[in-house]
Design goal:
Blueprint lengths: L2 E3 L14 H9 L5 E6 L2 H15 L6 E2 L4 H6 L2 H15 L3 E6 L1 H6 L3 H11 L8 E5 L8 H16 L8 E8 L6 H12 L4 E4 L25 H5 L4 E7 L4 H11 L3 E4 L5 H15 L5 H21 L3 E6 L1 H13 L3 E7 L14 E4 L2 H7 L5 E4 L4 H7 L3 E3 L17 H18 L6 H4 L3 H11 L6
Parallel strand pairs: 1-12, 2-3, 2-4, 4-5, 6-7, 6-8, 8-9, 10-11, 10-13, 11-12, 13-14
């Protein structure tokens, strides 16, 4: 059984994780006409905004309540009210997603009560705009928890309660934060190929896919509509992807009775097979020929690629669900997870990661554990460790700011797994070193030394 090793350092040397508010804001960015609002000081928002812009290379509508020294002491409810009213007047959003930061959480502010009062006091002014609160303190959890809390909050605050008439072809999909724009687009296409109608919450493929509108839009444009969220209870089934999406799926089931199935990973042949079997069972349709062809292509890629993976040592640092996704992929290909570092120990999926131990820590922990590895797998902040260790870096997760197109990389189902096999195998080939005679024959040096010691020319 995998051992979970707690963090013992009092400081983060090279940070690995991103905060809960950032994860919640990312989820809100997957909603059409939304504006995430950080309730805290300006610095919290500025830091998150820099990471978003560098990763997506897009304009990000992230706002702040801009608390100062006085409001930190006396309370920030007035700032929250002013920010919400200003956003409504200037940008007319369909959704304002309030993400609390460490400041207001440590102070113990009643943000839910404040928002309820604001809604009641300004009911007419705020008509047509949903206000959703996600309690996301920076000092607890990480990006993964923030994303899940925001999705749960949107379901609780917007979706109609009670069981509704089911639409037999409607499927609710709750993707984890680690699915890229390309992953979600591909997911939608595959579900639609069975004649089903997916409603994806959140849908960053509609709002962060790199399209340029013909006029300035102060909110997100594209993504899940508020009406789709409101009618989520009419879905026949719900599919959640990633352990951190279990709670949002449970919230939806409790509120509306919609049953859910959770997939811990859609990367790899087994997970993809189970996913398409489920779609076939729900729709009553056979698996399309195009999907079966992609499966055959993946089988061939697995045969071609496993020669390059066998015996390789991999060092991975990521959020728990992404760590599980990647670790199971590499071990399935015959590699060994020699070092595993996670951001938080709050996820049950860590106990199923195929590694001897998992260190809860940062990228300095990864660097200390990764000696002798053949590949580092983490986000762009791992590039310094890669250079110092002389080990190639595969960039995954968030943020990836020193490469273009990270959001358009596919890594799930048959096609994504095939592309992932090729990408990693090519990295191994590009960084392959010719074996020395000593490596080919470890006894060669010893035999040479023994021969030298017994040679009559040496006088011994």
């Amino acid at each position: 059984m995998v051992r979970i090793l707690s963090q013992t350092k009092s400081a983060s040397v090279n940070p690995l994780k991103s905060s809960q508010p950032l994860g919640a804001a990312l989820a809100f960015l997957g909603i059409d006409g939304a504006v995430p609002l950080f309730h805290g000081i300006q610095g919290c928002t500025s830091f998150a905004l820099v990471l978003f812009v560098r990763h997506f290379k897009e304009a990000i509508p992230l706002q702040t309540t801009a608390m100062d020294e006085v409001t930190t002491i006396l309370g920030g409810s007035d700032n929250l009210e002013e920010a919400i009213l200003n956003l409504k007047t200037r940008t007319k959003p369909k959704l304002i997603g309030v993400c609390t930061t460490a400041l207001v959480e440590t102070r113990g502010e009643d943000c839910a009560g404040d928002i309820a009062d604001i809604k009641l006091k300004h009911a007419e002014e705020l008509a047509g705009t949903e206000i959703v609160l996600a309690n996301t303190p920076d000092f607890s959890g990480a990006l993964e928890e923030g994303w899940a809390k925001a999705v749960s909050a949107m379901i609780e605050g917007i979706t109609r309660h009670g069981e509704q008439a089911r639409q037999s072809k409607k499927i609710a999909i709750l993707p984890g934060w680690h699915l890229t724009v390309a992953d979600i687009e591909h997911l939608r296409e595959m579900v639609e190929s069975f004649g089903l109608q997916p409603v994806i919450l959140p849908d960053v493929s509609g709002s962060l896919d790199g399209t340029v509108p013909d006029h300035w839009v102060p909110t997100t444009y594209g993504g899940t509509s508020i009406e789709d969220i409101r009618e989520l209870g009419a879905a026949e089934h719900c599919i959640a992807i990633g352990e951190h999406m279990r709670h949002p799926a449970e919230v939806l089931q409790k509120m509306t009775g919609v049953p859910y199935v959770l997939f811990e990973s859609l990367t790899g042949l087994e997970g993809a097979d189970q996913f398409f079997s489920l779609l076939s069972a729900i729709s009553g349709e056979s698996v399309p020929a195009s999907v079966r062809r992609r499966r055959a292509q993946l089988q061939d890629a697995l045969l071609d690629g496993h020669f390059h993976f066998g015996g390789k040592k991999i060092a991975i640092a990521a959020e728990p669900d992404q760590l599980y996704q990647l670790a199971t992929f590499f071990t399935g290909m015959g590699s060994e997870v020699a070092a595993a570092v996670a951001t938080t120990d709050m996820s049950k999926v860590l106990g199923r990661v195929p590694a001897a131990s998992i260190q809860i820590g940062d990228l300095s922990d990864l660097e200390a554990l990764a000696g002798g590895a053949d590949l580092l797998v983490t986000h762009s902040h791992g590039r310094q460790a890669s250079q110092r260790l002389g080990i190639p870096l595969m960039r995954v997760g968030f943020p990836v700011f020193d490469r273009l197109g990270s959001q358009h990389k596919l890594s799930i189902l048959y096609q994504g797994t095939r592309d992932l096999v090729f990408e990693v195998a090519n990295m191994f080939q590009a960084n392959r070193h010719a074996p020395t005679p000593e490596k080919l024959d470890p006894f060669r040096k010893q035999e040479t030394q023994d021969g030298a010691r017994s040679s009559p020319l040496t006088g011994h």
